[in-house]
Specification:
The structure is a single chain. By secondary structure, the protein is an all-alpha fold. It has 35 helices and no strands. Helix 17 packs antiparallel against helix 18, helix 21 runs antiparallel to helix 22 and helix 29 runs antiparallel to helix 30. It is rod-shaped and about 145 Å long.
């Protein structure tokens, strides 16, 4: 309700008295204001005693604002009797505060009919509180059309409640006249619709929403400051976002305190982040309680972490139950983990449903796991969609597996994109295979990078062999993918990079990659490194790597060892490795190894 009447009436006639410069005493601003108010009140009382209606009205408003209802009422009644509409409005306010709503409405009506916009607003509010919406709309519209910000806001609120399209016009009018709640609600409405338009339109909507959030936040609206901070954070303007979060948090907004905590954590100031999370959590913010729980869990303080996760759950945040499940699972408390996962999953937490399904699958309950994977996947869990693909693939239901892989891949799941790429390769659909392999390789999959390189490698024409000292050609795209996979530890890619280096005459580079692959357990890498060393005259060292490759099942390496020992006269050792090569194959190796074994046997028995 408006405490005072029309500004023109109240302030246009006031004469403000300043402190005397000749007093010889220094006075504070507050003291000077008090002295000025006292002098003004004395002036108004003297004028009222002479029957000045305007002075009585202003004096009554002054006393009403101070809370002196008994002192204000006679002055307001006298001014109202003299026809002062501002006094009639303020008399209505006074009576409303005393609990005489109907009598207050009568005086507001008198003032509103006389053209008082604040009185029309108060009267409209009165009718709305009593459920008379037509009367409320009539008087609020009267107030709004006179430019009264509170009237415009109340009219917008009424129309919005009814779903009337005219609500936005009046909400905007109130915001433009400085009403901070109207500015905030207008910003929220624009913000909500920003995601439903085209990209350029959405950008414009966000910019407009930001403008109104700024207006409301500048006037002390803490939720507006929170949303303004969120817009700035998304845009990367973290310093200003932090300032608005801080403003909102200091005004008591727990969500802002929580958001400020995350900003500080990301900046490396975990201790300060914890302070703001604690403040937000104590005010009932579940997200902040979860953040505190995670912080203590990282420090190994599991009991404290569990306490905060429970606090988050008590605050209505289902992430608390999910995090409790994770904590129990890490501690090997499987039964408790399942309990918490189920609680969160039944509440609609998709990642909890996925985690529950994994837990059941690990326990051998495939039948129980499948519906939870499905529920999580249908709710948008990318990991659950991928896991469903694995589940169906394990059953041999390749078409269903591929459908879920494709769904996860479309949402950016790297391993799912790899599986789709492999499936398309089997179907000889190279364009689709390449597209998915590129997605997976770009997402960091070494296997996808290797398979993509192999696909591209098969397309390029053969190149002539390089001689040592010849200028090396620029790397092709397939070589770059081989190298990316190799640097990520892919052993077959490392062998292939070594082969490409050897083909262009770079023996040192080839040996480096072969050795890397061999030390990681690649039998082909060990075999090729042996070949390279043998060509360089280091056959004893080559035999060491061939032995490692042969022990891992490499038939050609076993045949090389048989030849190596035969040439050195160690016939029994040669016969042993020839026999091993004959067992390992492949066919042409087995045939040659068999002939060598028989020859060495004859030599030994001669």
């Amino acid at each position: 309700m408006d405490v005072m009447g029309d500004k023109a009436t109240l302030f246009g006639t006031g004469r403000f008295v300043g402190s005397s410069e000749d007093s010889g005493e220094e006075t504070s601003r507050d003291e000077r204001d008090d002295m000025g108010d006292a002098a003004e009140e004395l002036r108004l009382r003297l004028a009222s005693e002479t029957g000045d209606a305007e002075a009585m009205s202003v004096l009554g408003a002054m006393l009403l604002r101070r809370g002196d209802l008994d002192g204000a009422e006679p002055h307001l009644r006298a001014a109202t009797a003299a026809g002062d509409r501002a006094a009639a409005n303020n008399l209505g306010v006074l009576l409303h505060q005393r609990g005489y709503a109907e009598e207050a409405a009568g005086w507001w009506r008198i003032a509103a009919v006389a053209g008082s916009a604040p009185a029309a607003h108060a009267l409209g509010r009165h009718h709305r509180e009593r459920g008379d919406e037509p009367a409320a709309e009539y008087w609020l519209r009267q107030s709004a059309e006179q430019g009264h910000a509170l009237g415009a806001y109340a009219l917008a609120d009424l129309l919005e409640h009814r779903g009337d399209v005219g609500a936005e016009h009046w909400m905007r009018a109130a915001a433009e006249r400085g009403h901070r709640e109207a500015a905030y609600r207008l910003a929220r409405a624009i913000d909500r619709t920003a995601g439903h338009g085209e990209e350029s339109g959405a950008d414009n909507a966000v910019a407009e929403a930001e403008q109104w959030y700024r207006q409301a936040a500048a006037r002390g609206h803490r939720r507006a400051a929170l949303h303004l901070g969120a817009i700035l954070e998304r845009r990367g303007e973290l310093k200003e976002a932090g300032r608005w979060y801080l403003t909102s948090a200091k005004d008591g907004e727990p969500r802002a305190a929580c958001a400020l905590g995350f900003l500080l954590r990301d900046a490396g100031d975990t201790e300060s982040a914890a302070v703001w999370w604690l403040r937000a959590a104590q005010d009932g913010d579940g997200n902040a309680a979860n953040a505190l729980g995670a912080l203590h869990a990282e420090r190994g303080e599991t009991q404290t972490a569990e306490r905060w996760y429970r606090a988050a759950l008590d605050a209505g945040d289902d992430n608390g139950a999910y995090n409790l499940g994770l904590l129990c699972a890490e501690q090997g408390r499987t039964a408790q983990a399942e309990q918490w996962y189920r609680r969160a999953a039944y509440a609609g937490h998709r990642e909890a449903a996925n985690a529950l399904a994994i837990l059941l699958l690990q326990g051998g309950d495939t039948t129980g796991a499948e519906p939870w994977f499905s529920k999580a996947a249908e709710a948008g869990s990318v990991d659950a969609a991928f896991n469903l693909g694995i589940l169906y693939a394990g059953r041999g239901a390749d078409e269903m597996a591929l459908r879920w892989y494709e769904r996860a891949a479309a949402a950016g799941h790297t391993e799912a994109a790899l599986q789709v790429g492999i499936a398309r390769l089997r179907e000889r659909d190279e364009p689709e295979a390449e597209r998915h392999l590129r997605c997976a390789a770009g997402g960091g999959s070494a296997e996808a990078a290797y398979r993509l390189a192999t696909l591209l490698d098969a397309r390029r024409p053969p190149e002539p062999a390089h001689e040592l000292g010849e200028v090396v050609h620029e790397k092709t795209e397939c070589e770059e993918w081989y190298e990316r996979a190799a640097t990520q530890g892919h052993r077959r890619a490392q062998v292939r990079v070594g082969m490409l280096a050897a083909a262009r005459g770079d023996v040192v580079e080839a040996a480096r990659w072969y050795r890397t692959a061999a030390e990681a357990g690649s039998r082909n890498g060990a075999f090729n490194l042996g070949l390279l060393l043998a060509r360089e005259g280091s056959e004893p060292e080559a035999a060491v790597w061939w032995t490692r490759a042969a022990d891992a099942g490499h038939g050609r390496a076993a045949l090389r060892l048989a030849l190596f020992y035969a040439r050195r006269g160690e016939l029994a050792e040669g016969q042993k490795w020839a026999g091993r090569a004959a067992e390992l194959g492949p066919a042409e190796v087995a045939e040659r190894a068999g002939r060598l074994r028989d020859a060495l046997r004859e030599e030994l028995t001669a």
